[in-house]
Each structure stands twice: as C-alpha cells, then as structure tokens.
Amino acid sequence: MIRSPVQDSPEGAVLSVHVQPKASKTEYAGLHGGALKFRVAASPVEGVANDALCAYLAKQFGIPKSHVMVKAGHASRRKRVRLSGVSVSRVREVLGLAQG
Hints:
Elements: E1 6-8, E2 12-20, E3 27-32, E4 35-39, H1 48-61, E5 68-72, E6 78-84, H2 88-95
Parallel strand pairs: 2-4
Antiparallel strand pairs: 1-2, 2-6, 3-4, 5-6
C-alpha cells in the first residue's frame, strides 16, 4: 500500500515534503518519490529555506505563518510539515491532488 503524502492529524494536515532549495522561484512542483515537491528560492542555510517554505505554504492556504510547522527533517530535504487547522481535502484542493 502506498502511503499518501498528506495525512490527517488532530491538529491539521501533515505533509510529507521534498524540498529543492536554491530554485529560480518558490513553487509547488508535483509529486516526488511519495512526497510533495516544493522548489524554494532560498538557500538551505540556517533554516532560511524552511522559513521560505513555511511562508509559501501559509500564503497558499491563507493561514498565519505560525500555523505552519516543520515537525521533522529540519536539516534534510525530506520533511514533515503540519498545517494547523487545514483539512486533508483542503490540501488536495489547493495543490490539485487526486483523492486517494
């Protein structure tokens, strides 16, 4: 069974994310190895890319940046990010993911 890159939790949706830092612009880039791929314009130094990812997700989902938290993988390209108060169906809608 393939695990969805978007999981539900009592606090909100948890995303499995693959980050590509130092891209030309910050954007959602589809699926990559069972994770949601995001290109981030920031460099991966001292958490700058994590901050840029969180700011981008907050803007896309219309939530405060404080509602976006990197739960795991702070120093890795693979991360788990929680969007507090956001449903899995809302994530699928915003990112254009098929129901699964």
